[in-house]
Amino acid sequence: MNSIRWGLLGASDVAATRMIPAMRRLGHQVVAVGSQTPKWAATYAERNDIAAFGSVEDVVGRDDVDAVYISTINELHREHTELAAAAGKHVLCEKPLALSVDDGRAMLAACERAGVTLATNHHLPGSGIHRTIRQLVADGAVGRVLAVRVFHAVMLPARLQGWRLASREGGGVAMDITCHDASILNPLLGALPSDVVALAANQGPWGSAAEDALMSTMRYLDGTLVQTHDAFTIAHAPTGLQVLGSDGSIESRAAMVQEPVGTILLRDATGEREVEPEDRRDLYEISVAAFAAAVRGEGAPTATGLDGLRAIQVALAVREAVGSGHRVSITE
Ligand code: NDP
Predict the structure, then answer these.
(1) pLDDT, tens digit, 9 for 90 and up, residues 120-150
(2) Which one of 80, 169, 188, 239 is least enclosed by Cβ atoms within 10 Å?
(3) Which residues in the chain come in under a pLDDT of 70?
(4) What's the pLDDT tens digit per position in 21-79?
(5) Other residues' Cβ atoms within 10 Å of the Cβ of residue 245
(6) Residues 6+ apart with CB under 8 A from 153
């Protein structure tokens, strides 16, 4: 299966702005879109040049759909994954994979039972920037990694100021942004943190139900420390990643964005030099191409279902630490 025939579950912004273009550039077909609102489904199909539309059930029931891309609101990811798996469709599900560890595990089990591929659409771990950073660390470029800092404080665009602010369960910065941080920290450090503390605030002018800014500190069993700053409220600040080691450091600017940009600066005893990543492809194209290869049995998705589950384990621990004011331990 070189070209996938996609069914979209969720008539969403990210599908229109990132995923449909990526699928089409790769020569895949977008066959149908399923939405909970029939009128919106029709409008969306026309705007995005998709021939068929209907309910989510209509789309998973189609014989001409090989795989579904799920970008419904976070509360519906489990239900829609289970529906698709039961219909024998491969699943590329948006992050956060689920809103609880039990839901995530149920999704993995449903796809395994059905014999279909499950991947999480984390766009960052497959990017050229993060693959290059992981390779530098694996090659010992900074010696022993002792600390990582993630700068992921951005301004939430006006068009996205809906459920992310209104929903206490599915919204909030921990499930939206910290979960992205975890998607790159987990493979970079090869483990989940053992302990997490975090504080959050509601800083925006929108009176949000969920936290819109947080800072977390994580400790790993080997003593590595991680800090993250995740926010919807900060204008004109670059995102970034610092990996700080016993023999050197890596500083990446614009590391946590949706475009294939970003720089990597390596500093060690010999001085500092810029490292150019080998791959500058669109991040969503990388995710879709790797998913298609995994469906063919050629390699793994850039983020598997299990990777998505591990990312929410971290994000949920951060959210629990915010809510309780206590240190939260993560057990795998
Ligand atoms: P949107 O708010 O654009 O879409 C979410 C749902 O809202 C849609 O599926 C649709 O429901 C409904 N909706 C949106 N617009 C309308 C409308 N005009 N009328 C009626 N219903 C509407 O969300 P996002 O695209 O921002 O996020 C969707 C998912 O993708 C989330 O899980 C998010 O976390 C993830 N995401 C991932 C990104 C990444 O880089 N990996 C980037 C951005 C988002 P229905 O299902 O009924 O069609």
Answers:
(1) 999 999 999 999 999 999 999 999 999 999 9
(2) 169
(3) 1
(4) 999 999 999 999 999 999 999 999 999 999 999 999 999 999 999 999 999 999 999 99
(5) 20
(6) 213, 229, 230, 231, 233, 234, 237, 239
- Would you state the structure tokens that stand for residue 155, as one six-digit string? 């301004």
**189 C-alpha to ligand 1 centroid (Å):** 31
Q: Residue 168: its pLDDT value, please?
A: 83
Alpha-carbon torsion (135, 127, 167, 36), positive or negative: negative
- pLDDT computed for residue 1 by the predictor: 66
Q: What is the pLDDT of residue 159?
A: 95
| Sole residue written with tokens 């090869």 | 190
The answer to whether 95 touches 180, Cβ cutoff 8 Å, is: yes
Nearest by Cα to 100 from 317, 332, 328, 330: 317
Q: So what's the pLDDT on residue 54?
A: 97
Four-residue CA torsion sign, 173, 178, 183, 184: positive
183 Cβ closer than 6 Å to some ligand 1 atom: no
pLDDT at position 102, please? 98
User: What is the rounded CA–CA span in Å between residue 255 and residue 153?
Assistant: 12
Distance CA 132, CA 279 (A): 9
Cβ of 140 closer than 6 Å to ligand 1, yes or no, is no
pLDDT given for residue 2 in this prediction:
74
Q: Rounded distance, CA 109 to CA 105, Å?
A: 6
Does the Cβ of 78 fall within 6 Å of ligand 1? no
- Give the list of residues 6+ apart from residue 205 with CB closer than 8 angstroms, or none: none
Pocket probe for ligand 1: among 35, 39, 57, 73, the residue whose CB has the most ligand atoms within 8 Å is 73
Task: Report how far ligand 1's centroid is from the alpha carbon of 13 (Å).
Answer: 5
Mapped onto helix, strand or coil, the DSSP state of residue 38 is: helix
| DSSP count for the chain of H helices, then E strands | 12, 15
Q: 125, 302 in Cβ contact below 8 A?
A: yes
Q: Would the CB of 161 count as within 6 Å of ligand 1? A: no
Q: Tell me if 186 CB under 6 Å of ligand 1.
A: no
Rounded Cα gap, residues 303 and 305, in angstroms: 7
